[in-house]
Amino acid sequence: MEIKVVENAASIEADILVVNQFEGEKTSNDLANKYAVDEDNFKGKFGETYLLPTYGEAPYRKVLVIGFGKKDEFCSNKLREATAKAIKKCSQMEAKKVAFVYDGVDFDYSEQLVMGAFIADYKFDKYKSEKKDKHIQEVYVKANPEIVKKAEKISAAMSFARNLANEPAQFATPSELANIAQDFGLDTTIYDKEECEKMGMGAFLAVGQGSINEPKFIHMKYTCDNPKKRIAIIGKGICFDSGGLDIKPASSMITMKDDMSGAACVLGVMSIIKEFNPQVEVHGIIAACENMPSGKAYKPGDIVTAKNGKTIEIDNTDAEGRLTLADALCYACELGVDEVIDLATLTGACMVALGTHASGIMGNDEGLINTLIETAKRNGENFWELPLWDEYFDGLKSDIADMKNSGSRWGGASAAGVFLKKFVKDVKWAHIDIAGTAFLDKPQKEFISGATGAGVRTILNYILEQ
Fold first, then answer.
1. Cβ neighbours of residue 51 under 8 Å, at least 6 residues apart?
2. Which residues contact 31 (CB under 8 A, 6 or more apart)?
3. Phi, psi of 427 (to 5 degrees)
4. Helix, strand, or coil here: 424?
5. 261-289 per-position pLDDT tens digit
6. Is residue 230 flagged as an active site residue?
């Protein structure tokens, strides 16, 4: 899809012209007002559409009216969602050229219109033997050209992350993630098993020891002269999670290729970071491995030692993500960064609490947490702060080690957060649990089912706003 900025989108010889209607108001298009509003009493309720042909009375062949709902309830997030709805409708009509004319909107909608268009136009059909080409080729709109370019780049990073998380585990192995990371033109170091052993990453290596695909620890670095801030972003990189010896039921395992969605987010961000040239040093870190059962797999009751020397009793091999993150957090904290942000499909408990509409966030600095929440809100993602009280560690106490990797079923998301906190030292830190938002079983708002690229737009905008 190509976004073309024009002065008058209504003059384009498009297949479909998209116009908006607020409830109780008319559109900017005479044909739409005559047939949709006056004759058929189209109300313009949010998300509703009305399609009519122009019969040669206009440069465009058809007009699509998209309802914006009540004007006093309208916002940039609703604009993005409505745009996505319009794009999907145009795609169903096999349109190739679509023009947008939005009237009466009192804010710059350039970024969210572009984001909505690209999110809606996304398809993962790599493995389809017969591909149905219903992609829209050109979108015409009057918008801010610089903001459009920014939104196109962020959309590309989201699609990159969505593709990776949608890939089957047979493709997205730890080695493949490492290969991908080396293609970005960044200062990238890949540590193999032996090197991780020398660094003392016993928690990370324990998780990966049951798989024939060896673990890879990935460190990408973007830097600039005199950076204003140094940030490390960590993505959980469990390329497939069977649960290990505490194996998952089949119904819970089918989507576990997406357990590297945090890693996909980090790779998506790092894939585009050089094109933005932010005045911030950014470290992208992924402890990539598979959690598989075998004769070599780590076992319940084992004791593993993390990079910082803390010992962990394995209570459940399916609480593996926090073990890999423990060593990644230790590594990040040794880089001299100002902030560490990790993203992980970490707990089913977070999904039980927040569903698929919000990610949980917690950490040791309220300023960082609140800024990330606000950045997410402006860019179409919802982060909800969960408590990180010391009392949640009570269920993780061990008689024979410094801690267990899991405990009570109650407050599981916060307990996992408290576990991670034990591996954070002398740095501002935020943990984002994307278990419910990274992968959808069915379409939701502007997204189709499958991977969503959770966290990409928030993290990129957070970096760019420093």
1. 16, 62, 63, 64, 65, 89, 93
2. 52, 54, 57, 58, 63
3. -155, 150
4. coil
5. 999 999 999 999 999 999 999 999 999 99
6. no
> What DSSP state is assigned to residue 213?
S
The architecture (CATH level 2) of 2-143 comes to: 3-Layer(aba) Sandwich (3.40)
CATH architecture of residue range(s) 154-464: 3-Layer(aba) Sandwich (3.40)
CATH 3.40.220.10 intervals, the chain: 2-143
Residue that is written with structure tokens 């009057």 in the block: 142
Q: Three-class SS of residue 46? A: coil
Cβ-in-10-Å burial (0-12, 13-18, 19+) of 303 comes to middle
CB 281 within 8 A of CB 207: no
What phi, psi does 268 have (nearest 5°)? -60, -45
Instruction: Give the helix, strand, coil percentages of the chain, each rounded to 5.
Output: 35, 20, 40
64-123: pLDDT as tens digits: 999 999 999 999 999 999 999 999 999 999 999 999 999 999 999 999 999 999 999 999
For residue 303, report the phi and psi dihedrals to the nearest 5 degrees.
Answer: -115, 125
pLDDT tens digits, one per residue of 173-219? 999 999 999 999 999 999 999 999 999 999 999 999 999 999 999 99
Asked if residue 221 lies in contact with residue 187, where contact means CB atoms within 8 angstroms, the answer is: yes
Q: How far apart are CA 28 and CA 13, in angstroms?
A: 17
For residue 366, list its beta bridge partners.
Answer: none
CB 392 within 8 A of CB 302: no
**What are φ and ψ of residue 227, in 5° steps?**
-60, 140
Distance set, CA 288 to CA 196, 211, 217, 438, 466 (Å): 12, 12, 6, 17, 29
Instruction: Classify 57 as helix, strand or coil.
Output: coil
Overall average pLDDT of the 155-177 stretch: 98
Domain with CATH 3.40.630.10 in the chain: 154-464
Respond yes or no: is residue 248 known to be catalytic. Answer: yes
Query: Which one of 78, 89, 307, 322 is the catalytic residue?
Result: 322
| Vertex 62 angle, CA 56 and 67, to 5° | 145
Give the angle 203-267-260 at the CA atoms, nearest 5°: 45
Q: What is the pLDDT of residues 45-59, one digit of tens each?
A: 999 999 999 989 999
For residue 136, give every residue at least 6 positions away whose Cβ sits within 8 Å of its Cβ, in sequence order, or none: 1, 87, 90, 91, 95, 96, 97, 98, 117, 121
**Active-site option among 4, 43, 149, 248:** 248
Both tokens of residue 270?
Answer: 């790092």
Residue 134 has pLDDT above 90, yes or no: no
Q: For residue 145, how many other CB atoms are within 10 A of its CB? A: 10
